[in-house]
């Protein structure tokens, strides 16, 4: 697979302090290509997808999500790498 023409996406379950959920969501949505697919604010659980043009950028965002104040745990539940026809703007 040509890594210059690939796209990575992952699914995360993020557990946070319930009182911190609004701030955690705001911090996560500041990441490029981040989407909060589902949440249970009372339990402090978020289902999140992250995308990136390369695995290094994806891993940086996963690590940064762990460092958000109020986050207790980040679990990677899915990862996929797809080849694309044209390079992603982030990889250029």
TrEMBL record:
Phylogenetic placement of the source organism: Bacteria, Pseudomonadati, Pseudomonadota, Gammaproteobacteria, Enterobacterales
In Swiss-Prot or TrEMBL terms, this protein is called: Chaperone NapD
What HAMAP family does this protein map onto? NapD
What is its quaternary makeup?
Interacts with the cytoplasmic NapA precursor.
The entry's family comment says: Belongs to the NapD family.
Compartments (UniProt record): Cytoplasm
Which domain of life does the protein's organism represent?
Bacteria
* Functional summary from the UniProt entry: Chaperone for NapA, the catalytic subunit of the periplasmic nitrate reductase. It binds directly and specifically to the twin-arginine signal peptide of NapA, preventing premature interaction with the Tat translocase and premature export.
Listed A to Z, the keywords are: Chaperone, Cytoplasm
């Amino acid at each position: 697979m040509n890594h210059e023409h690939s796209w990575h996406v992952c699914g995360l379950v993020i557990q946070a302090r319930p009182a911190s959920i609004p701030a955690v969501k705001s911090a996560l949505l500041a990441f490029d290509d981040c989407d909060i697919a589902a949440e249970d604010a009372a339990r402090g659980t978020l289902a999140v997808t992250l995308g990136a043009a390369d695995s290094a950028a994806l891993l940086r965002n996963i690590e940064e999500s762990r460092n958000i104040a109020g986050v207790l745990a980040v679990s990677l539940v899915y990862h996929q790498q797809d080849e694309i026809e044209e390079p992603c703007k982030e990889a250029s």
